[in-house]
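Please produce the structure of this protein holding zinc ion.
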Amino acid sequence: MPSQSRAFAMAFAAAVLLLVGFAARGVSSGSSGSGALPRTDAAVGGMSLPAGQDSLRGRTILLDPGHNGGNAAAAAAISRKVDAGGMEKECDTVGAETDDGYPEHAFTYDVAVRAAALLRGRGAMVVLTRTDDSGVGPCINERARIGNDVHADAAVSVHADGGPPSGSGFHVIAPSLGPDGANAVILAPSARLAEALRMGFERDTGEPRADYVADAGLSFRADLGGLNLSRVPKVFLECANMRNPADATRVSDATWRQHAAQGVADGVTLFLTAPRS
Ligand SMILES: [Zn+2]
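Below is the modeled complex.
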């Protein structure tokens, strides 16, 4: 969708100009008198985001940390088939892990909790699909239902891939039309969310776009229940490839995970605040 991408890039450029102007007004009317720039907790590369306490007030964000710590010991429960939007898939899966044994479920939960804190700091209501890392599931259809029920303005499933060890990098998966055609309404906004998340995550983490899957860090899929069943804008973020040695080092580092969370928060903020063309 090159023309849509260009329009989106132009919208971002407009957002930057708008926000630079906003920051400048903040300086001129600031009461501190220090001359310092207004404090902001979000700078995506050279861009300033409206990351103040109220920038996301009234917005609801669904964060879905992939897998769960109890899945491996609950094979029967998580392998049962559930509706995946005109197809059936397993309730949930165990997920990937690094060669050193750091599991994807722990990574996704840590990043989601960190991102939730950042987004709540900007005034958003954040709902997580699980609130610990020791349970089983929830099933993929339940994860989608939670986002639908809270009428999330944006939903992000956080994952890390288990790809070929030679491949590295992150990618964002946006929905294409599911087998039952019921997610048609979310395709366009989800594509915009994917582009915003790619921009935020890339700049906050420095992680390269995946070189073993997707196209320029983006892919579109119709085989993920979480995307087929969503009725709110939703994407999957594969933060890195856990089987790749360099990526494994990064995901195992709490400082990098904070950068990853910042990328999630900034990408979602960009999606929710960038003016539409
Ligand atoms: Zn996963």
